[in-house]
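#struct-help
A.M.: can someone run this one for me? Single chain, 65 residues.
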Amino acid sequence: MASLKRTNQGPSQRIDRMYCTPDLAPALPAFDVLATDDVREGSDHALLLATLDLAVLRQVLTPTR
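D.P.: on it. Structure tokens below:
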């Protein structure tokens, strides 16, 4: 299992992921992977930051009548 902290497993790898359906994709204007020293101090995984547009998300999740 790869991690941000262990050096005996080869180079750092981005194996953390987030899934999004095509219907939700328009509501996701930004997605970032944070692997800073502060993140490494608290976890052996990178921090995934998904920014969602609330208005678009509401529209996508509201069933049409």
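A.M.: thanks! The chain has a mean pLDDT of 84.
D.P.: also worth noting: The beta strands are 30-34, 47-51.
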